[in-house]
Amino acid sequence: MANVAVDKKPSILVVDDTQENIDILKVILKDQYTVRVATNARLALNIVFSHRPPDLILLDVVMPEIDGYDVCRLIKADQRTQNIPILFVSTRSEVADDGYGFSLGASDYLRKPVNATVVLARVKTHLALYDRNRVLEELVQDLVQKQVNRFIKEAQELEDTRMEIINSLGRASEFRDNETGMHVVRMGMFVEILARKMGFPEEQVHQMRYASVMHDVGKIGIPDSILTKPGPLTPAEFEVIKTHTTMGAKIIGEANYPLLQIAREIALTHHEKWDGTGYPLGLRGTDIPLSGRITSIADIFDALTSKRPYKEPWSIDRALHYIEEQAGAALDPSLVPMFLAARQRLEEIKEQFTDPSLLDEKHTVC
After folding, report:
1. Residue 163 pLDDT more than 70?
2. Quick check: 169 pLDDT over 70?
3. How far apart are CA 344 and CA 237, in angstroms?
4. What stretch(es) of the chain map to CATH 3.40.50.2300?
5. Which residues of the chain does CATH 1.10.3210.10 include?
6. What is the DSSP code string of 229-265?
7. Contact 48, 57 (CB under 8 A)
């Protein structure tokens, strides 16, 4: 039987209404990539939504009828294509133009006239990031969903086994960020404090505590280069970070088990803000589930008072002052006073469950 040659080169879609610009990019890319072209937005969308979508898109901004921004918006609005990297190729150089493009989900900007070295470097970088995220998401979805399914089955029989699996899922996200080894432990206890102050039944308090452990499970799918970056994130990198909320909700799934339903709700909404400026849904006020509002306070407080790759820990005084300032802005104003009133217990938890990295700094280990 004859061997059939398969073209394994990544596929790049070049979209531009000027043939000269297309020809330049084809010359730059043709040796390393399979180049597909579209001279208008409609043809580009047909290719993107075909059974063989491209791996990356180089997209002109200024085009007749449908411009590049609208093309980007349509691609990012569809779950099938929303993760395809889009690099705008434009003569525009205004910061506002860049910001608008990033807000639509674009990964980067290339300036005309293009530089071959820059084009190849940016394309290689974004393809590598895309491939890594795609493989990670597939592996994580398969592996973690099996763990969740196992949890659902065994939870009916063994309470201890159920709690251990939940804690394992919470710790899974921390393998990527070793500066917050005790983060989920403290988080659960802070959430428990607020839930009890709200007067929830004890069973619901218990569920809230252990559900919050999985709030950041979606970070399993965030690349190390972004998750542990010591400096400020670029707009494109921050867009990647934001996906841990929706990815976490997907990982936990649509189970009919109350604790997992709360866990999914928390994973999805713990970065929503009272004033509507949060993500991923932009919910406002009481439209944000109470579980998400409670977890948000606990998460912010522990993040502020913990050492992270990009910052030193804040004092408890400074962190609580910030929490108080955010009442009615980022945080539910009815919950903030309850949290502040629990200061003594918060201090006890921070002292008892200290990050191993901080202990290493305080004590010499022989």
Report:
1. no
2. no
3. 37
4. 11-129
5. 158-362
6. -SSPPPHHHHHHHHHHHHHHHHHH---SSHHHHHHHH
7. yes
86-90/56-60 β-pairing: parallel
Q: May I ask the CATH architecture of the domain 11-129?
A: 3-Layer(aba) Sandwich (3.40)
State the distance between the two ends of the chain, measured CA to CA, in whole angstroms: 65
For residue 113, whether the previous peptide bond is cis, meaning omega lies within 30 degrees of 0, is yes
Cα separation, 66 vs 40, in Å, equals 8
Q: For residues 100, 101, 102 and 105, what is the CA-based torsion angle, rounded to 10 degrees? A: 120
Count the alpha carbons within 13 Å of 305 in the hemisphere toward its beta carbon. 28
CATH code for residues 158-362:
1.10.3210.10
Query: What secondary structure letter does DSSP report for 287?
Result: G
Q: Which residue has the higher pLDDT, 70 or 307?
A: 70
| C-alpha span between 27 and 215 (Å, rounded) | 47
pLDDT of amino acid 359: 42
How far apart (Å, rounded) are the C-alpha atoms in residues 44 and 40?
6
Judge if pTM exceeds 0.70.
Answer: no
